[in-house]
């Protein structure tokens, strides 16, 4: 079971780094008036496990932090991600 958690932690780390980079790219594009990343792609990255990187980017870069509809979907992706480790733990001990 430890391997599962370590693999999951590695997955979250890699996806978080990628997601932070995509948020940075999108913030830079917004500043310079260039091509932007679609919001659904940002949400997909968060849903796939990059939510910690997205959370950091939203705070450190102050990007995508004001729009209520974006924030709602973001927090739903966080909730979905947090249920996975709980479900794994519950399945192990339940």
Can you walk through the features of this model?
The chain crosses the membrane at residues 7-24, 44-61, 73-91. Keywords: Membrane, Transmembrane, Transmembrane helix. It comes from Oceanisphaera psychrotolerans. There is one protein chain. The chain is mostly helical. It has one domain. It is built from 3 helices and no strands. It has helices at residues 2-32, 39-60, 68-93. The longest helix has 31 residues, at 2-32. The chain starts with a helix and ends with a helix.
Topology:
Blueprint: H1 2-32, H2 39-60, H3 68-93
Helix pairs in contact: 1-2, 2-3
Helix- and strand-based class?
mainly alpha
> How many alpha or pi helices?
3
Number of strands: 0
Report low-confidence residues grouped into runs of 5 or more: none
Strand content: under 5%
Radius of gyration, whole Å: 15 Å
- Described by the principal axes of the CA atoms, the overall outline is elongated
Rounded mean pLDDT score: 90
End-to-end separation? 14 Å
The H-and-E topology, N to C, reads as HHH
Helical residues, percent: over 70%
Note the main sheet: none
Q: How many domains? A: 1
Highlighted features:
94 residues, mainly alpha, 3 helices, elongated, transmembrane, Cold-shock protein, membrane, transmembrane helix
